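Need the bound structure for S-adenosylmethionine, inputs here:
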Amino acid sequence: MDIVNPALHEYLIDHATPADEVLRDLAEETHRSLPQRAGMQITQDEGTFLTLLVRLTGARQAVEVGTFTGYSSISIARALPEGGRLTACDVSEEWTSIARRYWERAGVSDKIDLRIGPAADTLRALPQEEYLDFAFIDADKTGYAVYYEELLARLRPGGVIVLDNTLQSGRVVDEADQSESVVAIREVNDAIAADRRVESVLLSVRDGVTVVRKR
Ligand SMILES: C[S@@+](CC[C@H](N)C(=O)[O-])C[C@H]1O[C@@H](n2cnc3c(N)ncnc32)[C@H](O)[C@@H]1O
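Answer from helper R.:
Posting the output first, comments after.
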């Protein structure tokens, strides 16, 4: 199922602030060196959206779950003010070694604290305070429910969580689809929609992007 009409896709990309040379090179290298995996990378319009959201919320303390080769982390970190911090979670030394090179080029290395290991463990070890301003979840779909709860507990009132791939190529509305990831995302979407602790919207941007604000 096309979530965004293919005829509109290029038009949407062309009418957002474009990626700079660092992000263009990163996208190109990711597609060239990891062709089977490059589809995991967020797209240019999503990167611009994350940068805008971080700036609009004035976020200083951020967490990302799912770093891969670094596109979203750069999009977030470059919008943080001086002294701002992004804790980036991933399990792959290999993929994040590419991210590290591009963090240097983007001049954001000193703002990013990369934690290698299962994100659930990393998040549980973060301070048990409402200190986070912004979080982005884009990793294993069966982990989303845990990531959401651990992050929400640490989010300040007014803080924002963004979850990627919440439409699963439209498979969320096909009840015959009982695959693990789709079921997990359906459950998270239902839980967030019913969650009185937050206000939220599920946007039909790319593969579905949910934006949550803690009350
Ligand atoms: C969709 S990719 C992230 C794409 C990234 N946001 C970007 O902009 O390029 C998902 C990432 O989640 C990581 N991942 C998968 N399971 C994980 C887990 N349990 N804990 C932490 N990271 C995990 C993978 O190694 C992969 O790099």
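Comments: The chain is about 40% helix and 20% strand. The chain has one domain: 6-214.
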